[in-house]
Amino acid sequence: MNIQPINNNVPMQGKQNNSAWNNLKNSVVQKIIDVVPEHTQKESGRKLEKWNKIDNWVSKPAQNRGIMGATAILTQPFIDYNNSKVDQETRKMAFFNRLAVILAGTTVGMFIVRGPIHTLTEKMTNLKGNSKFSKALLPKKFLKEIAENEKFLRNYRVALSTSLAVSTCAVTNFLLDAPLTIFLTNLFHDKLCDKKKNIANKKMEVKNE
Description:
Layout: H1 12-35, H2 39-58, H3 61-73, H4 76-81, H5 88-123, H6 143-148, H7 150-208
C-alpha cells in the first residue's frame, strides 16, 4: 500500500486577501467610532445614574409594597369578578373583599409597617450618629467588624427590618388589617350596589310614566 504525502501548502494569495480585507474592515470600524460624538457616552452615564436612582427608590420597602399593591389592584379583583363557577352576587362580594384586602394591606404595610420600621432601623443602626439611640440596635461586640464592612451592615439592616416587620404584621393583621378590610368591603358594597339599585329604580319609574 502506497501512502501519498499530504500537501499542506496553502496559497499565500488567500491569506494576503484576508489580511487586506481585515485591515480595511478595522479601518472602517475605527473611523465610525471616531465620528461618534463624545456626549453620547456622557448621556449613557446619565441614563445609568438615573436608572440607579430609580432602582434605589423601588428597592425601598415602602415603595416596593406600594408597587406590589398597585399591581394586585389591577389584576386580582377582576379575576375574582370573572369567576364563572359562582353566582353574580358572590362574584360581587369577592370583588369588593379582594379590593378591600389589597387596599388595607398596602396602606398598613406602606405607612405603618415597612416604611417607619425601615426608617427606624436605619436611624438606630447609624455608626456615624451622635445620639444615644443611633447605635441602639447594633450588637456592641460586633461594632468594629460592622464599621469595617459596609456590606455586612447593609445585610444586617435588611435582616433586622424584615424580622421587625414580620413581628409587627402579626399584630397589625388583627388590630388594623382585618377591621379595615371589613369596613372597606361593606363600604364598597353599600355604595356601589345602592347606587346601581337607585339607577335601576329611576329607569323603572321613567318607563312607568
